Amino acid sequence: MHTVIQTKNLSKSYGNTPVLKNIDLTLESREFTAVMGPSGSGKTTLMNVLSTIDTFDGGDVQLNGTSLLDLKKKALRQFRQKEMGFIFQDYNLLDTLTVKENILLPLSLSKTSAEEMEKRLKKVIQSLNIESIINQYPSQISGGQKQRTAAARAIITNPAIVFADEPTGALDSRSATQLLEQMVSLNQTLDTTILMITHDPYAASYCQRVVFLRDGNIINEIYKGEQSQKEFFDRILTIQSAIGGDRR
Amino acid sequence: MSLWNLSWRNVQRNFRLYSIYLFSMITGVIIHFTFSSLMFNDDILAALENKENFQQGVIIASVVVFLFIIFFILYANSFFMKQRQKEFGMYLLFGMSERQIALMVFFETLLLSIISLISGMLIGGLLSKFSGMLLMNLMQYDNVISIAFPAEAIGSTILLFILLILIISIQSYWSIGRVQLAELFHAKEKVERPIKFSPVLALISIFLLAFSFFLISRDRTSDYWQEYSTTSLIAVTIGIIFGTYLFFRQFSGWLLQTMGRSKKFHEGNKVLWTSSLRFSIRGNTLNLTFISLFSAVIILLVGFVSINYAVQFESVGRNLPNNIAFSTIDEQTNEEIETTIQKSGHSIIYHKTLTGITTTAISDRGIAFENPEYFSEDIFLVPESQYNSIVSLREHEQAVELAETEALALSQGMDSPRTFESGLEPEFTISANGETSFQITERKDYALLGWSSDPVNSMGIKKSVLVISDEAFKSLQNQVPLSSYEIYQVEDAKNAEELSEKLYEIVSQTPEAYYSAFADVYSIQIESSALMLFAASFLAIIALFALGSVIYFKQLREATEEQQQYKILRNIGIGDNEMKNVIRKQLLFVFLPPLVLGILHSWFIMKYYMLNSITGYPQLTTIIWGIMGIYILIYFLFYWSSTSIYYKIVNQIN
Asked: What ipTM was reported for this prediction?
C-alpha cells in the first residue's frame, strides 16, 4: 500500500468564483473511492485537476510522489499515458475502430509489442466478459458493452489510477450493476486504484470509501469497512439528505 | 497501429461524412482542370482570333475558381475539425502529441486530395472534349476539339492543390491546438438563451427593403437617379444590406414569436418545428444574410453575362450596320476594292454610295448626340431620300419624313432615345455656307454609318450623322463640296476577317479615311462574351457549391446538437413521418427566405438596370427566368439533401 494521489490546500477558481477550496485528499493504492456531491459542488473540477487535464491555482497535487507543479506539458502527457486510465459517462469510443482496436489503442500509440498486447488484451476481456464482441464496431454493441470496452481500454496500460466520471450515468440498472461489480473485481483482482465521480448512492455503495463534496469543500468522508452493502448504502443516503442531496 | 493506418481507417469508416467533401473537391478539380486544359488546348488556340485575351480571361477565371475552392474547403474542414474535437481529445489523452494528431489529419487530407485529384483530372480530361465543344459552340465556331490532358494543365492543377493541402494542414494544426481536454468530461452544457425581438426593428427591416426596391424601380430619368444619383445609390446599398440583415435578425424572430402567441399555435406540430429555430436565430443571422446577398450576386453575374452574350449577336449588327463601309477615295481605288471583294468569295448582296455633306458643328454636339465623345468631330449631313433607301435595303422599318429645316440625329447606343414635340425641338447649328440651323425632331437609337473599325484594334469612334430634308440638302449642295461613302453588304460577313484586312490596307493609305467592317468586331466580341459566359457559368457552379456548403454544414452541426431532442421526441411516441414533416418545415424556414430575398434583389436590379435599358430583345426575360429556374432547382437540391441527412443524423442510435 502506497499513496497514489495526495493534495495539499488544493484550490481553484473560475474568475472570481472559487470552485475548490483548500482540499486535502489522499488516495492510497488499491482504493476504490467515490466522490459525491450536488451539482456545482466541484467534483468534476476536482477530477479534471487530479487527472492533469485542468490546471489549479493554489496548493499542490502529488502523483506517486511527483508534484504536478514540477511537470512540463510533455511530461504531463507521458504521465497521463502511462499512469492514468479514463472512463467517461458517454464512453468516448472511436467509432472508426473495432472494440479490440479501441481497447488496444493506448498500447498501439505507445508502441508496445504485438505479443504483449495480445497477452494483456486476453486478461482484460476475460475479466470484463467482452470476448464475444471484440471484432465488432461500437455502433453494433449495447451501452453496457460500450462502457465495459471503455473500462478495458482504461486498465489495459496497468495505470496507477483509473478516473471514472459517472460511468453508470447512461446505463440501465442491470448494466450499471454489472459494470459496478466488474469494477469491484478489477479493483480486487488486478489491484486497480479507482476514483469514481457519481451522484448515484447505489453506485457509490460499491466503493470502499465515499468523499462528500459541497461548495468546493470536503464536508464528510465515510469508509465501508465491515458494513454490508445495504448498510453502507443507507448511510450514504442519510448523509446525502443531510447535506442537501442532489437535485439533478 | 501506425498513424498512416489510423488515417486510412478514418477515411474508410467516415466515408459518408466525407462524401460531400470529396464530391466538392472533385468538382473543384474538374472545373479547375477544365479551365487550365482549355487554356492549353491546341485545337482551341488554333480556332481563336484573340488568343491573349482568351488566356488572360481563363487565368482570371481559374484564380477566382481557386479562391472559391479554398473558401469552401476551409469551411468544410473547420466543420470536420469541430466534429472531431472529442476524438482528438481522446488521442491527446492517450499520449499522442498535437503534432502527431496533425500529421494524422494531414495524411487524411493527403489521401482525400489524391483521390480527388486523380478522379477530377480524369473526369475533367474526358469532359474536355465536351467543354471545349461547348465553348466553341458559344463562340460560333465549328472546330472539332479532341480529348486532351495537357501537361501544363496537370502541372498547374497539382501545384494549386499542394498549396491547398498546405493551407488545410495549417488550419487543422491550429484547430487541434485549441482542443480542450476538459470538454471530454461532461462540462457545463452551453445553453443559448432565446433573444427578444422587437416589432419595431422587424418593421424597419421590411421598410428598408421596400424603400430600396422603390428606389431601384424609379425611372432612370427621374430626379432620384439624375439629381441625387450618388445618394440614391448609397441608400439602395445600405437599404439592401441592412434590410436583409435585420430581416433575419429581427423579422424572422418576430414572426416566430408572433406565431407562438397565436391561439392555434398548439395545434399540429408548429411547436416542434419552431422551438429550436428560436434558439438558432442569433447563430443563423450572418450566414443567411451572406447567402441572400451572395446568391443575388451570382444570379446578377450570370444574368449579366448571358444578356451580354445574347445581345452581342445583334448588337454588333446595330453598332456596325454595314458589312463594309469606307470613305470614297477615287474611281481607281473603288475598282480595286470591288475586284478584291469579288475575288474573296464573299459575293456582294448590294453596293450603295451614300452622298452627303461633311461639315462641322457650331452648336454643342451634345445637343444632338448622347455622349458626344464617342462620335466624330465632323458632322455628316445626309438627305432623307438616301437614308430611306438604305433603310429599305436593310429591311428596317426606320424610314422618316422630314420637312424644311427639320433634322434627325442618329445617336446609336443611347440610353434614352427621345422624340421632341413640335415647338420644343432643340436648335442645332452647323457651318455650311455660313451658319445653317436645323431643328432636331428626334434623337434616334440607330446607325447609318457605324463605329469605325480596324482589324487590329477593333472599334474606334462612331460617325456623327444628321439626316436632313431633301429640300434643305438641295439648297446646300451647290454651295459646299460633297463627300461620299461606299457601303457594301456581302455574304457570310461574319467570317470576312481576311477580306477586311486586305480592304483596310487599301483604304488606310489615305489618312483620316473612314473604315468600318462588321467582321473586325464580330468575332472578337462574340469570342470574349462567349468566354465570359462560359467562365461565369462555371464560376456560378462552384460558387453555388460554396454557398450550399455554408447552409449544409450549418444544418449538419445543428442536427448533431439536436440528436438528444429528437431522441426524446421519439421516446414520447412521435412517428417517422411526423418527424420528417417537422424537419422539412424547420429547414424550409431556414432555406426559403434567403432564396426569396436573393431572387428579389437580383430581379429588381436586373429588371430596372439591365432589361429596361435594352429594348428590342424580347427573349431576354426568358433567359433571366431560365437562370433563376436553374438556380432554384440547384438550391432545392441542397434543401432536399439537407433534410434527408438531417433526418439520418438525428435518428442515429447512440
From this structure: 0.77
